[in-house]
Structure formats: C-alpha cells, structure tokens
Amino acid sequence: MAGRGLEDQLMRVIRVLSAALLALGLAAGPAAADSSPSPSQDASSAPTQAGTSFRTATEIEQGQRATASGSTGDYLYWSFPADTGQRPTVRATVKLPDTHAAQTWQIDVYDGLRRRQACQYGAQTRTAAADSASVELACVLRTVRAWSEPWANDPLPGTYYVRLTVTGVPTSDLGLRVDTDMRVESRDIGGSAAVDGSLSEPLVPGIAVKSEGEKEDRAVLFGLEPEDGWASGWWSDRWVWTAVGGLLAALAGVAGYVLTRGAGRPSRVPPAS
C-alpha cells in the first residue's frame, strides 16, 4: 500500500509538471508568432522614390518593398521605425546599367540621433564586377534596446535611416541610371534582450516639438510607428519565462521531496513512547 501511495503521488507530480510545460509552450507561442516579419503592403502604395538627405528620407514600413531610380553617385535615403526587442535587417538590390565599370556600393544605417549603427553581419559593402547586372547588400543590426547609457551607442527605439550610395566608381560612370529595391524586416528577439528602464519618448524627429493648437498637441515630423504602437519598455516575455521557471523549480522540489522521504515508519516498528 505504501508503494501504491508513492506511485500515486508521483503521477500527480508528473501531471502538474506536464500542465506547467504546456503553459510554457502556450506562453512562448505568441512570441514565436511575433518573430515573423509583417506582411508586405499593397504594391500600389509602395514608395517609388528615395530622399536625398536625412530630412527628406522616404518613409517605409517594415515588410514593405520600396523602389527608386537614381543616378550613380547620388545619395539615396529611406527611414523606418524600429521598436524595443526588434532586430532589423536591411536589404538593398541595385540594378546596374548594361555597360559599366567595376563599382563599390554601400548601405549605412543611422538611428534617431543620426549615429551610425554597426552591422552584426551581412554584406554592407560589395563590389560589382564590370558589366554585372546587379549588386545585393544586407545589414543586420543589433537588437533595439529599451534603454541605454548616454555614452553608449546601442540601438534605441525610434526612427532609423538607411543611406545607399556608391563609394568607388570611375568618373565615366557618374550619372548613369540605376534602379534600387529596398526592404526592411525585423525579428522579434523578446525577453532575452530585455533591460531595465525605458526611454520617455522614442527617438523620432519632432517628438519634442509642442504646438499650441487644441486639435493637435504634438507636431511629429515622422509619420510612421510600429503597428501596435511604441512599447512602454516595462513588459517583456521575460516575465513569463521567469514565472514559469520558478513554478517548475518549486514542482521539482516537491517531486524530489516525495522521492526521498520514503514510505514512512514501517508497520513492524512500534511508535516511540
């Protein structure tokens, strides 16, 4: 009977552990779903031109394909919003003229303070051989943090700028027509990149400009923001993982106690007087 009772207790513990693991899977499911890039916008609404400076950068949504035509030697600018926990990937394709010499193209990404952000990996600079049809560039940024030290160069939530230009080209190729294809996507990293603290406002141009009118209380120079709005910075799935981890640790302690305490006092041993 004692063995039967121990077996029943173990089965109850296993059932509780299974329920906790199921809850962990359900909690992690939305985070995995959020990691997929947002769907592409309607082709008719996709931008077909690029800006020539930071102030005139063409706004694009993440997951939206943008195209533009320009001349070899021009600086082309786009901007997009990136929020806490996202790891943006910028991809650009440049369709070159039928006849040209070897050219070196480069993409640079800047945050809302116009600080150049380093690429974790990707072909940020690439040289196209003479008469090649196109050149493809990519830049995977570091994960956007909710807060950072003032002296640090960490990516922060807000507007990001992409600059595409040719850095090495002979004079004979300057002014030749090129067609560009730009796309930005992000992976949601989640609680593994969470930090304590948050910015009071995202680094968006014009966010600190106030207006006196009653109808509009804020003048924003950048019109795009994440689909669900800017994150507050206090919540992340790290809370879910911490809570479930604590629950599993407690259940593991109970299971260990049940396994090691034994069946109790044998019936043949009289109680202590």
UniProtKB/TrEMBL annotation:
Low complexity biased stretches: 31-50
Residue segments, region Disordered: 31-52
Signal peptide: 1-33
Chain segments annotated as transmembrane: 239-259
Keyword annotations: Membrane, Signal, Transmembrane, Transmembrane helix
Official protein name in the record: Secreted protein
